[in-house]
Amino acid sequence: MQLEQAKQSAKKLGRRILWYLFGALIVFCLGYFGYSQLSYSDGYRSGQLVKISRRGVIFKTHEGTLNLSPNGMMTAWEFSVKNADVSKKLQEYEGKQVQVHYLQRYQVFFWQGETEYIVDGVELVK
Fold first, then answer.
1. Cα 4 to chain center, whole Å?
2. How many CA atoms lie within 13 A of 117 on its CB side?
3. Whole-angstrom Cα distance, residue 49 to residue 53?
4. Most CB within 10 Å of its CB: which of 7, 12, 19, 98?
5. Beta strand pairing status for 117-124 and 76-81?
6. pLDDT tens, N- to C-terminus, the chain (126 residues)
7. 75 close to 69: Cβ distance less than 8 angstroms
8. How confident is the model at residue 38, as a pLDDT?
9. Could you write out the DSSP letters of every residue in the chain?
10. How far apart are CA 104 and CA 80, in angstroms?
11. pTM as predicted
12. What is d(CA 119, CA 102) in angstroms, rounded to the nearest whole number?
């Protein structure tokens, strides 16, 4: 009788430990996702928009290149775009001088883009 009670209490303790580990894993994953989505830098960059494309095998992301050098030499700055409306604007401005607003993330997941720079706004420079 005591052996059966010991087995049952060991099973309960084992299940409880597994649930705590599972809960800790969920909290860790949510915390890491939240932390990685924080931006530690934001600002503006301007230059000639060289290209904007939609790339990826399974997860299609919008990627672009901005030439920051005013004298014709290529100083490329790679960026990603999450918003489809901003991507459409960028496609219209391809080859023109633009100013973009970006957020720099600690880490970007594969479905959000290839670079840590996420462009969220664009204006045509006159």
1. 52
2. 16
3. 11
4. 98
5. parallel
6. 788 888 888 888 999 999 999 999 999 999 888 887 777 888 999 999 999 998 888 888 899 999 988 776 778 999 999 888 999 999 999 989 999 999 998 877 777 778 889 999 999 988
7. yes
8. 79
9. -HHHHHHHHHHHHHHHHHHHHHHHHHHHHHHHHHHHT-EEEEEEEEEEEEEEEEE-SSS-EEEEEEE--TTS---EEEEEE--HHHHHHHHHTTTSEEEEEEEEES---TTT-SSSEEEEEEEE--
10. 10
11. 0.72
12. 4
- Which residues are bridge partners to 94 per DSSP? none
The pLDDT score that the predictor gives to residue 98 is 94
Q: Residue 90's closest CA among 60, 55, 110, 120?
A: 120
Between CA 112 and CA 82 the distance in angstroms is: 6
Residue-level pLDDT at 6? 83
How much is the pLDDT for 39?
79
